[in-house]
Amino acid sequence: MATPSAICRFRRAFRAVASSSIWRQEVANEAHPSYQIRSIPTTSGDRIYCKVLAHNAVHAAFAGYTGVTMGLVNTHYCYLPIRTVIQAPRRVDPRGKTWNRLRASIGQPNFY
Predict the structure, then answer these.
(1) What is the mean pLDDT of each run of 10 residues along the chain (112 residues)?
(2) Exposure b/e, 17-44, CB count within 10 A at least 16 = b
(3) 111 is a domain residue
């Protein structure tokens, strides 16, 4: 483990490098349409769902489970083996009912 003085030296060196002119180049960013998906505020249901998944993931990690992910199956939260989840690819028709319902529920514009 690093000593506090070593950490302080590292921070000073990092600040010196970060403040040099080589790192102060301006970058022009463009607003890509894919960012609109992420810019919509979450609903309370999404927040609760993500929080429950995160709690279950932490419990799985502390219990020593590896290679699992959390999921909601028939109204029950459970551990799902990652190999089983990624075994078969899932396809969603971008012009189908399922995608249009999702897009309408989150307020995403139609990109085509």
Answers:
(1) 61 62 55 60 84 92 91 90 87 87 81 71
(2) eeeeeeeeeeeeeeeeeeeeeeeeeeee
(3) no
